[in-house]
Design brief:
Length: about 475
C-alpha cells in the first residue's frame, strides 16, 4: 500500500475516533484501500450493485427455497481472553440466522410505519463440515498469533503530526505540502494499516479458505491501547462487497481480493452473551455487527448512504438520512438509560416526512433497536447470492439430490490422466493416497494429472457435498 493511501485511511479512521470513540464498521474505508490495489475495483463493486438492483427492479425472485451457505470462523487470538468460547460462536450463528430469516411475528422492535418493509432474506448459514482438503472440521478454526492487535495505528504520533502539519481532518484530501509534512513527521513507520494481516498466515493470521465456496469470518483483536495495558475496542468489523468485472475470468476474483474476501470481526463484538463484551455492553453486544457486515458482504451499503441527505444508499425503501443514528446521538448516548423510543423523533432529512430508520441493520444503531432488512435490501442480497456469490450455493444440493449423487472416475487402470465424474455441478475434492496412507495429490479439478506418481496401486478419496467415496486406482506409467 502506498503512503498516501495509508495516511488517508488513517485520517479517515481518526476522524471517526474523534466524534464516536468507536468505528462500528470499516467497510467504506477498506473499499477505498482495495481500489489502490485493483484500479477497477470500485467500478466493479458499483457494477455488481447496479446489476443486482436492476434484477430486483425487474421482478427477480429467488428460485430456491433452500439457500444454504457454509461459514468458517477463524479465531485468531493472542491472549486467552481473545480465544472466545465455542458457545459464543454458536450464539452468534443463531443470531445471524434469525436476522436473515425474518419473522414479523417475532419482531417487537420495528415501528408500525416500517413494519411492512421488513423482509426475510431466506439465507441459512451453517458451519462448514469439511475443510478445503476434504477433511472434517467443526467450522471453527483456532490459531494463536504473536500479533497483539491487528489495529496497529499509533494515535499519539498521528495526532501530533496532524496538529503539526495543520491538517483539517474533516477534509477529504491532503495537499502535497501536507502529505510531505505528514510523511516526514511520521517517518513512514508511525502508521501501519495492516487490517487485512489477519488473513495471511505469513503476517500472523490465517489464510482464507476458498472464498468462492466458504464465507470466511476472521475474529481477532481490533482494539487500541490509548493507555498502555488498557485495550479498548476501536474497529468492530468490515467486509468486502461483491465485485463483478467483465475483464476478470468468470467465477474468479482478482488475486488481491481472493486473499481477503470475507468478514472481519473484533472479538468483543462477536455474538450475544460474549463474556468479553466489556464497554460494548448496551450498544454493540447483540451479535449484530456480523448481521451488518454480512449485509455488506452481500452488497448492501450503509442506510444513510455515507453522506448527507442527497447521498443515497441506492435502495428506494430506506428513507434518506443525513448521518448514522450513532453520529446523531454522539456524546448524548448513555447505554444505561437508553430506550429505542428515544430514537423515534430523529428525522435528519426533512425533505421527506419519514423518520430515520433506526431499525435497519445497515444503520449504526444500538443493536437491541435493530430489527430489519427492507424488501429491497433483501431482493438485492438475493440477486447477489444467485449472481457473484453463487459459488456458495453450488456446494449444497438438497437431500433428494444427494441420494442421486454419483461419484466415479475413469479410466482404471490409468497412465496418469484421470477424469472425475459427478452427475451434479459444484466442486469435487479428490485426494490420492499411496498404500502407506500418505496423501500424494489433492485437487478440486475434474481432470487429474497424476503422471508424476510412480507405477503402482493408490486409493482415491472423492468428496462432494460431504458425500465421500473411496476407490482403488492402478497407475501404469509408461
Ligand atoms: Zn458498515
Amino acid at each position: 500500500m502506498n503512503a498516501k493511501v495509508l495516511l488517508f485511511f488513517s485520517i479517515l479512521l481518526f476522524s471517526f475516533q474523534l466524534d464516536a470513540q468507536l468505528l462500528p464498521c470499516g467497510t467504506p474505508q477498506m473499499v477505498k484501500v482495495m481500489e489502490q490495489y485493483e484500479p477497477d475495483y470500485q467500478d466493479a463493486v458499483n457494477r455488481a450493485f447496479e446489476t443486482a438492483r436492476q434484477q430486483y427492479k425487474n421482478g427477480f425472485v429467488s428460485t430456491r427455497s433452500d439457500q444454504k451457505v457454509q461459514v468458517v470462523f477463524h479465531v485468531v487470538y493472542n491472549t486467552p481472553q481473545q480465544n472466545i468460547p465455542d458457545q459464543v460462536i454458536f450464539d452468534q450463528l443463531a443470531r445471524l440466522n434469525e436476522d436473515f430469516n425474518y419473522n414479523p411475528a417475532n419482531d417487537f422492535v420495528t415501528r408500525p410505519i416500517y413494519k411492512d418493509l421488513g423482509d426475510n432474506a431466506n439465507i441459512e448459514f451453517v458451519l462448514a463440515q469439511f475443510d478445503p482438503n476434504g477433511n472434517p472440521t467443526t467450522g471453527i478454526n483456532r490459531i494463536q498469533t504473536d500479533v497483539p492487535s491487528f489495529m496497529q495505528i499509533d494515535f499519539g504520533t498521528l495526532l501530533q503530526a496532524i496538529f503539526d502539519c495543520g491538517i483539517d481532518i474533516t477534509a477529504d484530501t491532503l495537499s502535497q505540502e501536507q502529505l510531505d509534512c505528514l510523511t516526514d513527521a511520521l517517518g513512514g513507520s508511525g502508521l501501519t494499516a495492516g487490517l487485512d494481516d489477519i488473513k495471511s498466515f505469513d503476517k500472523g493470521g490465517v489464510d482464507a479458505w476458498d472464498p468462492t465456496r466458504y464465507i470466511n469470518i476472521w475474529i481477532g483483536n481490533y482494539g487500541i491501547e490509548l493507555v498502555p495495558g488498557e485495550s479498548e475496542p476501536f474497529l468492530l468489523g468490515f467486509a468486502y462487497p461483491p465485485a463483478d468485472a467483465p475483464n476478470w475470468p468468470a467465477g474468479t476474483l482478482p488475486p488481491n481480493l481472493e486473499e481477503v474476501e470475507g468478514v472481519v470481526l473484533h472479538y468483543q463484538a462477536v455474538g450475544p452473551n460474549n463474556p468479553t463484551a466489556g464497554s460494548l455492553i448496551g450498544s454493540n453486544d447483540q451479535g449484530r455487527t456480523l448481521s451488518h457486515e454480512m449485509g455488506h458482504y452481500f452488497g448492501l451499503r450503509h442506510a444513510w448512504g455515507d453522506g448527507p441527505c442527497d447521498e443515497d444508499d441506492g435502495i428506494d425503501d430506506t428513507p434518506p438520512m443525513a448521518s448514522s443514528i450513532s453520529d446523531q446521538l454522539g456524546q448524548n448516548f448513555d447505554p444505561t438509560t437508553f430506550t429505542c423510543d428515544d430514537l423515534g423523533l430523529l428525522n435528519s432529512c426533512t425533505s421527506d416526512q419519514l423518520p430515520d430508520m433506526y431499525e435497519n441493520y445497515m444503520n449504526y444503531t444500538p443493536e437491541s433497536c435493530q430489527s430489519i432488512f427492507t424488501k429491497e435490501q433483501v431482493g438485492l442480497m438475493n440477486a447477489m447470492l444467485q449472481g457473484p456469490r453463487a459459488g456458495l450455493l453450488d456446494i449444497f444440493l438438497n437431500n433428494t439430490e444427494v441420494d442421486d449423487l454419483q461419484l466415479s472416475f475413469y479410466p482404471n487402470p490409468s497412465n496418469g490422466a484421470v477424469e472425475i465424474h459427478s452427475n451434479f455441478p459444484g466442486d469435487v475434492i479428490t485426494q490420492v493416497f499411496d498404500l502407506n496412507g500418505k496423501m500424494v495429490h489433492s485437487s478440486t479439478e475434474r481432470t487429474l494429472d497424476l503422471s508424476a506418481l510412480a507405477t503402482g496401486l493408490y486409493v482415491l478419496k472423492i468428496n462432494q457435498n460431504g458425500r465421500v467415496v473411496f476407490e482403488k486406482l492402478t497407475l501404469h506409467q509408461e
